[in-house]
Every structure is written in C-alpha cells, then in structure tokens.
C-alpha cells in the first residue's frame, strides 16, 4: 500500500476547516459501501490500473484535511454510482445540503494530471480577489459547462465536504473549451498538448495522459 502525503501550504478561506497540515492516507482495493457502489471488474479494470499508476508516482499529492482523518469506513476509493468510472475518496463528509440539477454550486479544487509525475495544472487557491482571498469556481450543475467527472463528484456531495476523485479520460477533458481551465495560457497549453498528444495517444497511452486527480470542496449551493 502506498501512503499519500499532502503539502501544508494551502488554506481555505471560505468559513471551512483549513486544508493544512500533513495527513497520510492509505489507498487499497475498493470494497462495497452502502452509499457508493463497488467497482465492476469488467468496466473499471482500466481505471484501477490507472489508479495504481497514479498512487505510486504522485509526489506530492493535493491537500487533504489534517483533522479529522478519514474514518476506516470511508478510507478507500470507490466508484461513484452512474459516473462511468470516476473513483472517489471522501476526506470529509459535509453537513450542508446536496445540490440538485440547475443549482449553482461553488467549489474549491486542486487539480493534477495522472501524467507528468502528477503535475498540478490548476488550483482555485491560486485565484485571488483584490483582498487576497481565494475565489471559488462556480457553475450550474447539469449545464455541461464542466468536465463530466467533476459533475459526477459534486452531485453526491454535501456542502462542507471534501472529496478526492480520480477521473478517467472518458469523463475528463474532451475538448479545450470545457472547464475548469487554468487561467495561465502556458498552463492550458501544456495541459492540452499532454492530454491530446496524437503520437502518445496512437501508442496507447490515452488512459494515462487524460487521467485527472482533483481534490474538491463543495463551498456552497444556491437553488
């Protein structure tokens, strides 16, 4: 089992707990849960392979909660229902409402690639307003504005919750207009030239190139 460790330099400024400190999370093979469906062998074998590659190469990984640590009953990645292979680990269960389609949701996120040694391509913690506060990313749930994997992750979260997701290529970026997009041009260019690299795709590397890892906090929901 591979311990995942988090950096200590990111802090949320949205009325929620800090994402600071150092937490070790052990990832093991998914087991059935009452709230999340077990992995289907035939459908998600490729995703599990990608997960194995990611967890063995990422260093460091996105920020996680320093306290409380995930409970033993929620310490494993599980496939989200009706997500086409999105794997999720709840780092904190929220206590607020769960969004429904057409709600406006605001999230903080920390995004990495499965390729390029887990390169961090974007983070809302780097998007600051005039007072230096991080600006959450907002979108309408079900609008198709964002990649499918983020929608799948958010629609079963509660406000205040934090979830780490591993998004397979089929639920990640399908074109260069899907959000969230890094605001920096060179980061966008690097992101998309990696994901849509024709030579490497032809060599069968698509399952690694387009795999994404996000830590997502659901900040608020507006009906």
UniProtKB/TrEMBL annotation:
Q: What are the EC numbers?
A: 5.2.1.8
For bias type Polar residues, the affected ranges are 13-22
Compositionally biased tracts (Low complexity) = 23-41
Q: Write down the chemical reaction(s) this protein catalyses.
A: [protein]-peptidylproline (omega=180) = [protein]-peptidylproline (omega=0)
Q: Main EC class of this protein?
A: isomerase
Recorded GO MF terms = peptidyl-prolyl cis-trans isomerase activity
Question: Residues annotated as region Disordered?
Answer: 1-41
Q: Which InterPro entries match?
A: FKBP17-1-like (IPR044197), PPIase_dom_sf (IPR046357), PPIase_FKBP_dom (IPR001179)
Looking at the record's lineage, which domain of life comes first?
A: Eukaryota
User: Which residues belong to any copy of the PPIase FKBP-type domain?
Assistant: 102-222
* Protein's name in the database: peptidylprolyl isomerase
* Organism of provenance: Opuntia streptacantha (Prickly pear cactus)
């Amino acid at each position: 089992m591979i311990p995942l460790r988090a950096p200590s330099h990111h802090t949320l400024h949205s009325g929620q707990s800090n994402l600071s400190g150092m937490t070790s999370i052990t990832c093991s093979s998914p087991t059935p849960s009452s709230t999340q469906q077990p992995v289907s062998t035939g459908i998600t074998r490729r995703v599990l392979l990608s997960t194995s590659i990611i967890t063995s190469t990422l260093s460091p990984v996105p920020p996680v909660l320093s306290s409380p640590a995930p409970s033993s009953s929620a310490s494993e990645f599980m496939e989200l229902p009706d997500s086409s292979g999105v794997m999720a680990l709840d780092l904190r269960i929220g206590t607020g409402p769960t969004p429904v389609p057409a709600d406006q949701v605001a999230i903080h996120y920390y995004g990495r690639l499965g390729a390029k040694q887990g390169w961090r391509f974007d983070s809302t913690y780097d998007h600051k307003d005039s007072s230096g506060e991080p600006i959450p990313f907002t979108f309408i749930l079900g609008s198709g504005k964002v990649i499918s994997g983020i929608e799948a992750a958010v629609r079963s979260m509660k406000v205040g919750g934090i979830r780490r997701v591993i998004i397979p290529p089929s639920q990640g970026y399908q074109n260069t207009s899907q959000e969230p997009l890094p605001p920096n041009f060179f980061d966008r260019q690097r992101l998309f030239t990696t994901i849509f690299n024709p030579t490497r795709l032809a060599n069968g590397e698509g399952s690694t190139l387009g795999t994404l890892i996000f830590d997502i906090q659901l900040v608020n929901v507006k009906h």
